[in-house]
Amino acid sequence: MSLFAPKPKIDHLLVVAAIGVAEKRTSGEIRVVIARHQATDPVAAARQQFERLGMTRTQHRNGVLIFLAPRSRTFAVIGDTAIHDKCGGEFWRELAAAMSGHFQRGDFTAGLLHGINRAGFLLAEHFPRTAGDQNELPDKIEETD
């Protein structure tokens, strides 16, 4: 069974709304990137997109990126340095495993929503929203070639 269908159907409006809801609880930033190209090393591709999107320039270094590459049937979830300092690697492995289950069933929207929601709760626990916090990055899905 492949991890992704050839053309995953993703409800962009639901995903963007979930990002907004998650970020209302935290100073953290969540982004989603869908690659049209193959990514044999999704973690390296995610890191490249993380840099390209300016996610290393957030005030608290607490951004999360969910990177999805349907053509190569791969994905990665990465976070900035402050998140790794507080959470370690186990959270990321558990999150990726739970998302993968949704993706394997072909429910890409549910997988993304699950990842965004869990990341939002983690960020809120360690980086709660405070007065004056601003949304530093756009709440939208990026698509890359």
Could you please describe the fold and organization of this structure?
The model has no long low-confidence stretch (mean pLDDT 89). It contains 4 helices and 4 strands, in the order αβαββααβ. It is of the alpha/beta class and 145 residues long. 46% of the residues lie in helices and 17% in strands. The chain is globular. The chain has one domain: Roll (Diaminopimelate Epimerase, Chain A, domain 1).
Q: What value does the Rg take, in angstroms?
A: 14 Å
Largest sheet: 4 strands, mixed
Question: Count the helices. How many?
Answer: 4
Secondary structure: helix percent: 40-55%
What would you call the structural class? alpha/beta
**Order of adjacent strands in the largest pleated sheet:** 3-2-1-4
- Helix and strand element order: HEHEEHHE
Beta-strand percent range: 15-25%
What is the first-to-last residue Cα distance? 25 Å
Compute the number of structural domains.
Answer: 1
Summarize model confidence as the mean pLDDT.
89
Q: What is the overall silhouette?
A: globular
What would you say the CATH architecture is? Roll
